[in-house]
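Async update (no meeting this week)

Hi team, since we skipped the sync, here's where things stand on the single-chain job. The sequence we agreed to prioritize is pasted below, unchanged from the tracker. I ran it this morning and attached the output directly underneath so nobody has to dig for it. Comments welcome in thread, and please keep replies under the output.
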Amino acid sequence: MSIFFKIYKTILLTLLFAHPALCQTDIVTTNNAKQSLQIAQDILTKGDYKRAIKQLKHTIKIKEDFAIAHRLLGKAYYDTDQFKLAIDALERSFDFDRKLSRAAFFEVGDAYLRLFETEKAEYYLGIYAEMKGKRYANAQKESGLEKSYDLYYEVKLSNLAYIETLDTTLKSSKIIPLKNVNSKDNEYLPSLSNDGKYLLFTREIDQMQEDILLTERTDTGWGEENKAAILINTSNNEGMAKFEPHNRTVYYAGCQRSEENIDCDIYVSEFTEGTLATEISPAGDLNSSSWDSQPSVTCDGKILYFASTREGGLGGSDIWYSKKNEKGIWSLPVNAGVNINTPGDEEAPFIAKDGEHLYFTSNFHPGQGEGDFFVTSLSNGHWEKPRNLGYPINSPAKELGLFVTDDTKHVYFASAREGGEGGLDLYFSAMPEINRPKKVFPVVLKIIDKTTREEISDQQVIVGYDGKKEDFKSNEDGNIYMCLEANKAYSYRISREGYKFYVEAHYLEEYILTAAQTLYLEIEPKVDKPAYVGEDRHTKTIVQVYFDTDSSDIPESDIEKLDRIARLINKYDDWKVQVIGFADSTGDADYNYKLSQKRADSVIGYLSAKCAQEIHQKVESSAQGSVTGSLTEAEKKQSRRVDVILSR
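Output:
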């Protein structure tokens, strides 16, 4: 099977027109229309649409009123997404024999639907429904085809209803084709590198051979594809390649890798200096004997979403996911569930870097046609009901494979819409704000010895943000690969025997089109300090930090006080640190006690981020709560404070 899941094409044609196969390189010239038609049918069973179309045109030249030849020509155009030509050929077949094929009316109706001509689409789909159970010439031959069309008949009616609700005035959103990349062949599933330098995509050459291709950005746009850079391509099918979020590796699908498994499996390759050279089969239970393709991995590399026709699905192609453990073993995949999957086809999942937004293609959820893009959000561990990305990113034609850029404002995607070079083409567009994920960027934490500059592996780092803490561990290169939400502050804490306690804070600003940002966490070996020899310093230092009413936020005016205290703590190891919080007489005692504790915690948190030593291990924190009595406004202001006391 192809990497690009196709249900209507050669499989169904084989059911319709089973004849002995012929091996030809071009049309077979004959003056016998029936013989020419037989040759065209044999070519169709092999999936060679280009040759079949030529042979059918030759057949019609011999016998103009040959209805079945027009019908098969229309079917070949329909299967190759040439909808205007399909309509012309199928309506011509109706002129000669309106009772030849019921399925042809479905195809014409769907073709008009793809062209946004809803009245004609509704008319022909209505005829298709009326003919059910009636006599017509191809009833027996096309029974298998009709079963598949019957499954999608209600879907097409819902497509019509959905299109009527669309606001098509949104054409102001520019849909820009990638002209230097698109060709007469199908191009789909784009994936952009973090630095915006490389674009991976799949091309289906002559509807037969699928390969992974790479193009590099130039001053004038995308350059010619670099076939030499992709050494993993074979004479079989490869494609659906996506960068993992740090661009170290690429996940993709490869087909016909053994006689036992002629379908497609998921593989991974290292991405090195713009090349893909090695094919690695993931360890564990990720792949099956069925069609597994279109992988997309989360930013931490621990969950992989993909499309599959394996047993246990809801119908057609479903979206599944597998989890990787600490040993690098992939678990038995789990179906993504009924909110995402349907009796139709769900394909081409893309998990955003925030891990909370999943984009995919479906031809069954309410949409415009053959396959629309949808997005679902993770809520309390479950995927919510998907939302259609809407017009104009979606069209009545097939959409397959969407990639959201790191700034979340733009998308690359594939579409078979009218006006392209042929079949599926690649496009670039703005992403409506309502459909954007969180702005999350790939970050590398690198743990090194400050003195020797050596990388430190297997080191735990506690990352704090938004009042939460999460543990990570460095790999053999001293690196931790993660994704962090932009425009937020993060703290990093490291405790290691023989080293000073490390704590540092960092504000991650939004950045665009750069390689993954690397943060160096330099931990310093402990050095025994000489004994204290009587240096003149105070035995006690007190600093008071004042707060606004009902607030635990440290005012900017008192930051310098805390910075001065932090420098003293860093200079000497023998301080005893006390942090005491207070509140004024406003409010009840319980509330004021909690507020004074929050103020003390704010000061401790600030000092922890500034101090080289772990002050939490030596600090004495307390909350005094309300200062009682009848207080003037000036006295209340003096009471809303935190005392920081250093003594020895």
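Quick observations from my side:
Residues 6-24, 531-536 have pLDDT under 50 and may be disordered.
The two ends are 77 Å apart (CA to CA).
Reply here if anything looks off.
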